[in-house]
Amino acid sequence: MIKTLALLGATGDLAGRFLLPALAALRAADRLPDGFQVVAAAREDLDDRSFQRTATERLERHAPHVPAAARANLVRSLRYRPTEMTDPASLGSLLSGIRQPWAAYLALPPGLHTAVVTTLGSTGLPAGSRIALEKPFGENLDSAMALNRLLTQVTRTAGEQAVFRVDHVLGLPTVQNLLALRLANRILEPVWNSRHIEQIDILWEEDLGLEGRAGYFDRSGTLRDVMQNHMLQILSLIAMELPTRLDQQALRDRKLDALRSVRPLRLDEAVTRTRRARYAAGRLPDAEGGAGRAVPAYRNEDGVDAARGTETFAEIVLDLDTERWSGTRFLLRAGKALHRRRKQVTVRFRPAEHPSYSSAPANTLRIGLDGPEDIALHLTGGVSLNPPSPTPVTLAAPPPFADLTAYGRVLLELLSGGSTLSVRGDEAEAAWRVMTPVLTAWNAGMVPLEEYAAGSAGPP
Q1: What is the pLDDT of residues 347-364, one digit of tens each?
Q2: How far apart are CA 450 and CA 445, in angstroms?
Q3: Which among 119, 124, 93, 88 is positioned nearest to 106, based on CA atoms?
């Protein structure tokens, strides 16, 4: 197990909000090896003590549920080195002075990935070391392919095993449960096909706005931020053929097959099968039932360049060219500043074939993806046969137990050498091929940029 984590970009939001809390939780669960150390690096001119104070504050804010002793133990192990990530001498000095093998986690803006990976290549990658990169992997298909070629050169003989493309959604217990739900459930798998399923909705709806992330999000947008990665990864787990053996390679091969089966939209189809929008001024919902918090229009948020036309809402309808799924629609919808938080998969079964029940509500299966949602199967039952009287019946189960956060699972797999929660290079390219015609149509202005009030259900 790797015992040294080089956290590049340690003063950023990702490190403070997710990675340090995940490491503290791993420490509390006694899942980190003896002697484990985090070497934090960023451009700021800090020393060990000042960074440790910053880390303590962030852990108090973002990980209050982790025992104080575990947080303090992690903080004591933190070391900080001011580093210029794209300077071979500066980064080389950092890495040459730490224990090998190491895992270098690039908690950095995606625009820096190519430069930093190039610098890592010039310093050399010790045997057994790994490079972790956050999504989105590239900004389009061409840049993703170029980054893959660069990583192949940098990792040399270690190959794909030395690369960990992070998509933390794969670490969510509910997402991991998608595969188990099919493997262990003899009721669902026989009807998991287009003969019985009319449509599958993958929803990633948030009730928060920009929240100070303009520096990243305004250059990304919803399609690049969550749809090209999170949501297509979920689609691949739902739509793939079940692997004949449960190992990393077989699972990733079947996911790749599913992504490659998605029929790319023609430009004229992108006009009728996609939507994009951004939020106008409004009020976000209040969990306590109050009036809610007023937010400005996205174009007026601090740090936003309105001329970019960045979307905060995206919707795409896709088809898969497989025997299992031909005739089933896959709807992907994601948005910010909506009236409720809803991250789930909704499987919509076809209406009953018997004419007496053909007008009854169709059965649905709802699978929560992130948060306290459950797994619920909504069935149309009947209380009488003459005349037919359908009555809904709901069978529900609690979400799977989560002993670690998604990032905790990702970090544990990164350090232990696993790759199940990593996106393989060909998967990333296949996902970009799905989104390329959509981006082309949007960039050409073929799909209008609509608006919706913050706190609403989205564009009308």
Answers
A1: 999 987 767 666 667 889
A2: 12
A3: 119
Residues of the chain with pLDDT under 70: 354, 356-360, 371-374, 380-402
Q: Is the domain of 265 the same as that of 396?
A: yes
The verdict on 112 and 198 lying in the same domain is: no
pTM of the model: 0.92
Q: What is the dihedral of CA 423, 425, 430, 433, to 10 degrees?
A: 120
Place of tokens 């980064």: 91
Domain final residue, candidates 102, 137, 166: 166
User: For residue range 21-67, what is the model confidence (pLDDT) as tens digits?
Assistant: 999 999 999 999 999 999 999 999 999 999 999 999 999 999 999 99
> Are 348 and 392 members of one domain?
yes
Shared-domain flag, residues 397 and 269: yes
Q: Which one-letter amino acid corresponds to residue 306?
A: A
What tokens appear for 145 in the block? Answer: 């392919």
Q: List strands edge to edge, sheet with 4-8.
A: 78-82, 37-42, 4-8, 102-106, 130-134, 163-166
Six token digits for residue 24 = 């503290």
Q: Catalytic residues, which ones?
A: 230
Q: Which domain holds residue 42?
A: 4-166
Last residue of a domain, which of 120, 136, 166?
166
pLDDT of residue 390: 56
Contact 106, 7 (CB under 8 A): no
Q: Report CA 374 to chain centroid distance, whole Å.
A: 19
Same domain, 151 and 201: no
